[in-house]
Amino acid sequence: MIHVFGDSHAMIPWQKVYGVSYNWTKGTAFKFSEHKDFHINISESIFRVRDNDFIIFSFGFLDCKSYIKPILKEFNIKWQDCIDTITEDYISAIEVNKNKFNNLQIGVLKIPSFIKGLQGEGLGFDSTYPTRCSDEERKMYTKYFNKKLKYFCDIKKYKYINFFDIYNDGDGYLKKKYASDNVHIEPYLGFQNYLLKNFKEHFKKNILYENKTNIGREFVSNVHKNEKGVNYYPLSTCLAQTFFLNNNKIVAF
Fold first, then answer.
1. Considering only Cβ atoms within 10 Å of each terminal Cβ, which end of the chain, N or C, has fewer?
2. Domain boundaries along the sequence of the chain
3. CATH number for the segment(s) 2-249
C-alpha cells in the first residue's frame, strides 16, 4: 500500500490515483520538524500503515514560499543555513516515524516549481501562507531545498520522487497550462503510470487498486497554542473529512 502525508501536494495529484491512501495534514517541513511525531504520527490506527508499506512525505513547498525569508530576517542567518537546518530536522522527523515500524519504504516528494509572476496562487492559500519572497528568491530556495532532500535521500536510501520537472519551462518555472488552479499539477494518468512502473510491488494485493479507488483524508491543525502554552492532539482527533475516489467503492484495507 502507498500512503502519502503532507501539504496540498500530498492531495493533488493523488486524488485520482488508484491504490493510494493520501493524507492532507496541512503545514510545512518547518512545522513538521518542530513538532516531530506530535504533528504527524503515522502509527495512529486511522492510517492503517503496516510493515512493508510505502510512505511518501510531501513538505517544503510552503517553506520556500512563506517561511524561509522571515526566518532569515528574524535570526539574521544565511538562507542556506536556514534550509540546512529545516531539511535536517525534516529528515529526523521522518526517521522518528519510520522507527515505529520494522520495515517501511520511505519516499520524499521533490518540491514542485511554481508559475512565474503569480503571487496570488489560488485556493485561498495566500491568506494563510502568503508569498514572502521574490520569484528568483523562491526558485533559489526551492532548488537548494530539493538538492538537500536528494542528498539525504541518497544517504538514507529513501526514494526521491521527481516527477514534475517535465512540466517546467526552460527557466525552471511551472508552465501555467499544466496547473488548473495555478498551483498544482494534475497529471493523473501519467502519475498513475509512473507509480505503476517504479513502485509496482505496492500495487500487488492492494485492495484499493483492485477496486479502482483510493481514500483521502483532510485534517485541521492538531497543534493549538494558548496563553498557557502549546497543546498537541492526536491527528486522528482532528479529521475534517474523508474522500473516496468512487463513493460506490468504499472498501476497507
1. C
2. 2-249
3. 3.40.50.1110
Using H for helix, E for strand and C for coil, what is the string for 187-217? CHHHHHHHHHHHCHHHHCCCHHHHCCCCEEE
**For the whole model, what pTM was predicted?**
0.90
CB 69, CB 134: distance < 8 Å: no
Instruction: Look at residue 55 and give its three-state secondary structure.
Output: strand
User: How many beta carbons lie within 10 A of that of residue 143, not counting itself?
Assistant: 13
List, for residues 104-148, the tens digit of each pLDDT value: 999 999 998 888 876 555 444 555 677 888 999 999 999 999 999
pLDDT tens digits for range 55-81: 999 999 988 988 899 888 888 999 999
Query: Which cell is 153 given?
Result: 535521500
Contacts of 220 (CB under 8 A, 6+ apart): 26, 238, 240
| Locus of grid cell 485556493 | 123
- Check: CB of residue 98 under 8 Å from CB of residue 49: no
Residue 92: CB atoms within 10 Å: 12
- Indicate the range of 5-9, 34-38, 118-122, 155-159 predicted with least confidence: 34-38
